[in-house]
């Protein structure tokens, strides 16, 4: 019973502190699953046997997982700057931040704000996307079976993670400078060659298998990385190595995210954005927003909680800092929504209802439209009529994929 209550409490704390970016993380995969246009996007992914399009979609979900999972070390320095925290306290704060992200508290104070392990959150969007793939390609029965199999494999990996730690001392990996990069490169190469040599009539099976394998490999990477960071207290040499790695990982992910957004903007201006799968675009956009929101908002609130509860520091400035960050985040969300929602509803007083609702016939409307576009009588005018199946969203995505 106590374990169940602790689980419920950790889930509540996770949603409370990270609800916004969890919502963003699952938003696009859920839309792919629920919206009719999403099914067309998923079908198109395997329709042309284009391994590059599928590979970039796989890579984007891996990047999304890394964006959720990575320790926001840069955020500590932002927090330190505004709150005048001593420099020697940075590693101690990072230590408690690792405890929270990995759900392995070393003190009772940290247990007060304990969350579920971040590795679970990191793979949820990709799992939802796998559900979309299996549902569209093979039906709900296979989707349910796939979900059960994934759950069992993940629990088995969790069960053997302690055995992995005792039989293979993964802590030594922390002293290997580039093992994370090599491991991720191996994952991406394996995915690419699976897609490359799997082209053919059964490409839907290959696409599904590649994504399921990606979920499991990424989870295994997060699990091994977590074990390698489970260092003994007081080991300054290992702490410095972890600090350096998490710092550069966070910077690296931010640079890729910002660079990708700039690239998408340039392609949109040039009219070549349609060459990229909507799945890749949507996933990378969500990754960008998650990294930015975590950098300036959610991690700042979490760091204030760490100071208040983890270090038992009841200073008023940390409470005030939390209030300011929450207020700033609310204002930013409202400003973002207002800037993107340019179609505000305006009300106009109607004087004469009968005149206002009087409409032209379709013949008159077409004749007026035609006359406005023919410069001289006798000139020809090319007219293209495009018909898309389904409702507005589905018709729009079909036209985007097939004809643009």
Sketch the major β-sheet: none
Q: Give average pLDDT, whole number.
A: 79
The secondary structure category is mainly alpha
**Which bin fits the share of residues in helices?**
over 70%
List the helices and strands and how they pair.
Layout: H1 2-34, H2 36-47, H3 51-69, H4 73-83, H5 90-102, H6 108-111, H7 118-138, H8 140-159, H9 161-167, H10 179-197, H11 203-228, H12 236-270, H13 278-310, H14 316-340, H15 353-356, H16 362-373, H17 392-402
Helix pairs in contact: 1-2, 1-7, 1-13, 2-17, 3-7, 3-10, 3-11, 3-13, 4-13, 7-8, 7-11, 8-11, 9-11, 10-11, 12-13, 13-14
Care to give the gist of this entry?
The protein contains 17 helices and no strands.
């Amino acid at each position: 019973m106590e374990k169940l209550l602790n689980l419920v409490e950790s889930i509540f704390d996770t949603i409370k502190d990270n609800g916004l970016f969890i919502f963003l993380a699952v938003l696009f995969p859920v839309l792919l699953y629920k919206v009719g246009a999403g099914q067309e996007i998923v079908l198109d992914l395997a329709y042309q046997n284009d391994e590059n399009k599928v590979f970039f979609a796989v890579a984007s979900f891996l990047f999304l997982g890394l964006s959720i999972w990575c320790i926001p070390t840069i955020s500590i320095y932002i927090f330190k700057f505004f709150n005048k925290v001593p420099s020697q306290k940075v590693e101690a704060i990072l230590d408690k931040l690792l405890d929270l992200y990995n759900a392995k508290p070393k003190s009772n104070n940290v247990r007060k704000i304990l969350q579920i392990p971040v590795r679970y959150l990191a793979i949820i969007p990709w799992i939802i996307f796998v559900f979309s793939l299996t549902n569209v390609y093979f039906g709900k029965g296979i989707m349910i079976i796939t979900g059960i199999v994934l759950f069992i494999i993940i629990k088995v990996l969790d069960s053997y993670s302690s055995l992995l730690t005792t039989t293979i001392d993964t802590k030594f990996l922390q002293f290997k400078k580039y093992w994370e990069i090599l491991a991720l490169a191996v994952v991406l190469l394996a995915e690419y060659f699976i897609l490359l040599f799997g082209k053919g009539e059964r490409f839907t099976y290959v696409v599904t298998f590649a994504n399921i394998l990606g979920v499991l490999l990424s989870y295994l990477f997060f699990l091994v990385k977590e074990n390698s960071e489970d260092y003994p207290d007081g080991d300054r040499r290992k702490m410095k190595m972890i600090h350096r790695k998490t710092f550069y990982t966070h910077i690296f992910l931010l640079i890729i995210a910002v660079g990708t957004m700039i690239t998408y903007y340039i392609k949109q201006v040039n009219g070549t954005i349609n060459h990229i799968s909507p799945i890749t675009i949507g996933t990378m956009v969500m990754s960008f927003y998650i990294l930015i929101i975590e950098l300036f908002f959610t991690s700042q609130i979490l760091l204030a909680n760490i100071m208040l509860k983890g270090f038992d520091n009841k200073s008023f400035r940390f409470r005030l800092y939390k209030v300011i960050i929450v207020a700033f985040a609310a204002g930013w969300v409202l400003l973002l929504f207002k800037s993107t929602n340019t179609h505000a509803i305006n009300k106009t007083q109607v004087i004469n209802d009968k005149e206002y609702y009087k409409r032209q016939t379709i013949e008159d409307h077409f004749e007026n439209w035609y006359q406005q576009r023919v410069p001289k009588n006798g000139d020809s005018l090319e007219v293209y009529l495009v018909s898309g199946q389904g409702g507005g969203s589905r018709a729009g995505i079909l036209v985007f994929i097939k004809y643009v």
